[in-house]
Amino acid sequence: MPERTASRSFGKASVRDAEVDGRRVLLRADLNVPLQRGGVADETRIRASLPTIELLRDGGASIVLVSHLGRPKGPDPDFSMGPVGKRLGELLGAEVKQAPAVVGDEVLEMASGLSAGEVLLLENSRFEAGETKNDPELAKDLADLADLYVNDAFGSAHRAHASTEGVAHHLPAYAGLLLEREVTELTAVRDDPERPLVVVLGGAKVTDKVGVIDRFLGFAEEILVGGAMCFSFFKAEGRDTGNSLVEDQGVESATGVLADAGGSDSMLELPEDLVLGKEFDAETEIRELNGVDVPEGWMGLDIGSNTAANYSKRIARAGTVFWNGPMGAFEMEPFAAGTRAVAEAVAAAPGHTVVGGGDSLAALASFGLADAVDWASTGGGASLELMEGKELPGVAVLQDAKETANG
């Protein structure tokens, strides 16, 4: 996949320019992966972290690696980083030492004893209550473990936590390769896309995407809406939605979007037909609806074939495509056709294609298309906030590119 020039849209100091030989690096990675039966169920995020880890090891650095995993309420063996470290070591072909805690005297001693190329993985950063509170003491204790800091956890860059923002005030702070590429790719879509720009939005909640819609109304040529969020728009238009999932707050947001779209240069497209089910179940009775007024006792679970064909044609004409959110309940085969059609259209599109959101990436993977787009963003909330134009604390705190490599 072609890589955009980072300098076009990324003004922060990069790890590629840092002097790391003989130095100890605190690397914040996004290793928040699903676990199953004591092992890693999906290693996508671990693999995404490998280029920065290998760059640092090749450069002669020792690495103290820190990440959160899930949302534990304090230390919890079910959320230990142990399985992550084991799989990371297998992928690196090198031992990954496991720290017994996030900080403390024993951890500091282990970090101080690292040789060039060695990796120490700290325990789950959220085992420390001060992590999500951005506690200054925890940030200082993390900084004491290393000589410089690299943030490669784009998926957590929208959170001002001790390991993503606080620690960067105490050490020379750089962007990792993944974070740099994420920001470069997404800001290029947001600020300087090849035309026409087609934005495809799905998923359950309008409120999750309303900021992105607001950002692109009047900027993108076309905004294509699918998923359960379309029913908030239909409700706002006074249509019948049956038993379809309708987000109450989303109706108000959709009403505002529809009003704004009426005076916009962008074309906001809603589905013209649907696939219905009696229940949210793969074995339920199914009905195709030529229209969008859902009868009582039925729920919309996918866009219809006409909508899928229409969206696919628009995607094929795009110079840039940004897709976030599935078109329906793709995890159930009877309701996967709409999302599959959009995924195939994005994969085949001649324009530059960027996909974000965990469900969209899962859909691409399930259809065997994970490697067929130009960029697959690892950040969910972070990618949406960046696309909205918000400042990400974990990026803003990094050194500017013009600063010297050693801070």
Question: What does this protein structure show overall?
Answer:
- With 407 residues, the protein is α/β, with parallel strands linked by helices.
- It folds into 2 domains: 9-177, Phosphoglycerate kinase, N-terminal domain (Rossmann fold), CATH 3.40.50.1260; 184-388, Rossmann fold (3-Layer(aba) Sandwich).
- Helix content is 33%, strand content 16%.
- The chain is built from 13 helices and 17 strands.
- It has helices at residues 44-58, 82-92, 105-112, 136-143, 177-191, 206-216, 230-236, 248-262, 305-316, 337-348, 358-366, 381-388, 393-396, and strands at 24-28, 35-36, 39-40, 62-66, 96-98, 119-121, 148-151, 173-175, 197-201, 222-225, 267-269, 274-277, 286-289, 299-303, 320-324, 352-356, 375-376.
- The strands form 4 sheets. A 6-stranded parallel β-sheet has the order 5-6-4-1-7-8, sandwiched between helices. It has a 6-stranded parallel β-sheet with strand order 11-10-9-15-16-17, with helices on both faces. A 3-stranded antiparallel β-sheet has the order 13-12-14.
- Strand 9 (197-201), helix 6 (206-216) and strand 10 form a beta-alpha-beta unit.
- The relative contact order is 0.14.
- Mean pLDDT is 94; it is low at 4-8.
